[in-house]
Write a structure and sequence with these properties.
Length: 382
């Protein structure tokens, strides 16, 4: 098997090439190119039955998903490669409702979809509160779950949080199964769940970019494109899932729900005169004085800068957290920032938006949370 430095060199070369392509599609292209290169390097280092080779295939199948449901189904399909049983529970407003399961009996598969898992105790409570995987004995899981589906033969359970946008969107349950001799690879399962979380966030960014491009096309036809100031909220992969019942046990943990993919429009009463009077006026269009063509370039440049910085945050979460804490964010992310800056300037450096420094503004607004001192003393905006 090739050593780590050789693998890093290959990945760095592939990433550098892919960065030149359209950012909303970068993750898809990156995964494809890296997976084409790695087997050549691994060579005979892993057979079809090898652990690392199977893990690579499992992650590849997750990344092959193009919709959120496909991604989550691939996660569950691969969960039972490394455990006896697996199930995914949707977390909304502090309650966890079954979505799908694998490795259960036929009756169990159907019932999982409606089962309300108690998250006020044991492993689910720990995983939900800490946003970290938690393992324990069978007694650490909802007794009603054990009564209905049976306990693990080795008396061990594992609950992993699936985190999206820093919130727990779902809990993944796994055990070795009800028969003796079942398998349970906690490290592999954690890697699969983390890979799924990252890929779902990338899919959300890509969907956002596609919506914005579609909005641009519509705006060009109607010549009335509105300004885009904020990124679209992440969509909810479980929006269509409506459990038939919820747990009657009070749930003290409150986790904000993920925004639905198709928001439900709820009829509301007309606001009173005092409320209407207090409502803020719509924000003025900052590009109102520009020609339609120049205004369109400025809006696209803003959105492109936002997508580039979102990519930096997504793939460097640990560095971002440490950089904000120690106020040396630019030093930790200099290479990524300058590569993204180059990509931005290549597209908009000679356009009508060249002098606006949208990329630098977005670094301060989003990466440094509106505090320039967090970037560090050696930071340059442009």
């Amino acid at each position: 098997m090739a050593d780590r430095s050789e693998l890093e060199e290959i990945v760095e070369r592939v990433v550098s090439q892919v960065w030149e392509n359209h950012v909303p599609h970068i993750r898809e292209e990156l995964v494809r190119r890296v997976l084409e290169e790695l087997p050549q390097t691994l060579g005979a280092g892993g057979s079809g039955d090898g652990g690392s080779a199977n893990l690579l295939k499992a992650i590849s199948s997750i990344y092959a998903g193009t919709t959120q449901k496909e991604i989550l189904r691939a996660l569950l399909d691969n969960t039972v490669r490394y455990s006896g049983r697996g199930a995914l529970f949707v977390v909304k407003a502090g309650a966890a409702a079954g979505w799908q399961g694998r490795g259960f009996s036929e009756d169990g598969e159907d019932t999982i979809k409606d089962f309300a898992l108690n998250v006020t105790m044991g492993a689910p409570e720990q995983a939900l509160r800490s946003r970290m995987p938690f393992s324990g004995a069978t007694s650490e899981i909802d007794p009603e779950f054990v009564s209905r589906f049976g306990g693990s033969a080795d008396d061990q359970v594992l609950v992993l949080p699936l985190v999206l946008k820093e919130k727990v969107a779902a809990l993944v349950y796994a055990d070795a199964g009800v028969e003796a001799g079942g398998k349970m690879d906690a490290a592999a399962l954690e890697l699969l769940v983390r890979a799924t979380s990252a890929w779902l966030e990338v899919a959300s960014l890509r969907k956002q970019a596609q919506k914005e491009e579609s909005a641009d096309t519509t705006a060009e036809k109607t010549e009335s494109a509105p300004p885009a100031h904020t990124a679209a909220p992440p969509s909810d992969p479980f929006a269509a899932h409506a459990p038939k019942h919820v747990a009657s046990v009070p749930v003290p943990i409150v986790v904000p729900p993920v925004v639905a993919e198709q928001p439900v429009v709820v009829a509301q009463a007309e606001p009173t005169a005092s409320v209407a009077a207090a409502a803020p006026a719509p924000a003025a269009d900052p590009f109102a004085n520009l020609s339609p063509e120049d205004a369109d370039v400025h809006r696209k440049a803003q959105r492109f800068a936002r997508l580039l910085v979102d990519e930096i945050k997504l793939y460097n979460q640990a560095k971002v957290a440490e950089g904000r804490k120690n106020k040396d964010l630019y030093g930790r992310l200099k290479e990524d920032i300058e590569k993204s800056r180059g990509t931005f300037l290549k597209r908009y450096g000679n356009s009508a938006a060249a002098g606006a420094d949208y990329f630098g503004q977005e670094l301060i607004r989003s990466l440094a949370e509106d505090d320039p001192s967090i970037m560090g003393a050696n930071f340059r905006r442009n």
